[in-house]
Amino acid sequence: MDPQPFVRLSIGQIGLKLPGGNARTAAQLCHCEIRLGGFPVQIAHVPLIHSSEFNLDPFTNVAVFSLDESDLKALATPGCFRAPRSYLEVVVYLGRFGVHCGIAGRKRLVGVFRVEVGSEWHEGKPVLLHHGWTGIGKGEARPELHLRVKLEADPRYIFQFDDEIVLNPQVVQLHGSSRQPIFSCKFIRDKRPSQTDALGGQYWSSSGSEEKDMEMRRERKGWKVVIHDLSGSAVAAAFMATPFVPAPGCDTVARSNPGAWLIVRADTTGSSESWQPWGRLEAWREAAPVASKDTVRLRLHLLPERQDDCVLVSEAPLSIDKGGEFFIDMDRQAPAAAGAPAAEHCAVSLGAACVGGGFVMSCMVQGEARKSRPLVQLAVRHVTCREDAAMFVALAAAVDLSVKACRPFRRKPAKKYGSSSPDPLELDA
Predict the structure, then answer these.
(1) Domain termination residue (choose one: 120, 153, 186)
(2) Phi (first) and psi of residue 270, to 5 degrees
């Protein structure tokens, strides 16, 4: 498998010293906007440093940009209205940001730090672009900003499902204009109890709602996705371990009783009859405020081998209308998911997959009413063999099907006008 080159730009260890600081200044909020042409602006809190003795976390990044070849080319090619050179900008403000009680926050510019986009960005070698203090703003007694700006290669494997998962597509690897088949995907709907139910039960309970679910007689269960290599051997799979059922009194899957998938891989003997559990993906539908679209929230726990604790490593919402991105990235997780214990357990469960943190995987999926061919990106350093890649492909399939499984339940399948064939997943409603 040939990876595609990516560059990871990280900004961390950020802090600010203000000249003649006093209690009033110390009470104010300080933040920065981190800008790079063609990317969304990232906003981060900037702690104020009041003494020469300070301790800034050397591992936590406040912003991370992932750039592929096209991004680097665009940054190196000024447009008609762009400056002759491109820069990474860290714009520091003093005061509130965002909206508070309906009123836009006031902020005052402190200064701007810039790093020019140079030829070293294309070389793929680790480069420390800046580390330490630098003066920003105007005047003799200027504020000082401390930060670390690091550039390093982060090559990735990119895979895509050739068609919708329920149509048993091939999974191809993308490299430039080539599309090389790597895996095949088989979707199965089996409503009979299986040995995998017992496997999932040892890691998670189903909230004791089996009897109520049976009375409802409205559930989506028994979905399976099995990933095969080119020889036809099953190497990874996703099993629906907990049915997707509507909450009492409504027609949607609720947070109180989410549906769940067990992500597994074939054991070391290569037998598809014996699976090793790796992770559990939960999904439910969250109602949105008025005039907004609902979301499907996904939560991934890892199941460390020979340990009882399940470790949260990712939680993300996806739009039911447009879909979105689900990811495992230790630089982008919520505080509860990115702490040291989670990283340690992640390393135990994934081996090299969490060592050093950073990006692990992402998948892009479409909304509940759209045809979806999930696009999967994997960090090369976290894939030691094709079986590793297959495991993440199975996870991506579960993410995509979770969006469909969280659709509202109806008493009768809805008729789709103008469609030549019915949606096979509607048969479960």
Answers:
(1) 153
(2) 80, 10
Which CATH number do you get for residue 133? 2.60.40.150
Of the candidates 166, 86, 163, the one whose C-alpha atom is nearest the C-alpha of residue 121 is 86
Distance CA 279, CA 423 (A): 28
Q: What is the pLDDT of residues 318-334, one digit of tens each?
A: 999 999 999 998 876 54
DSSP one-letter string for 153-183: E--EEEEEESS-GGG--EEEEEETTEEEEEE
Range of the domain at 348: 156-411+420-428
Q: Give the strand order in the sheet containing 30-36.
A: 42-45, 30-36, 87-95, 107-116
Q: What is the mean pLDDT of the chain?
A: 81
110-139 mean pLDDT: 91
- Residue 84 burial by CB count (10 A; 0-12/13-18/19+): exposed, middle or buried? exposed
238-281 pLDDT, tens digit each: 999 999 999 988 889 999 999 999 999 987 655 556 788 999 99
CA-based nearest residue to 171, from 186, 157, 185: 185
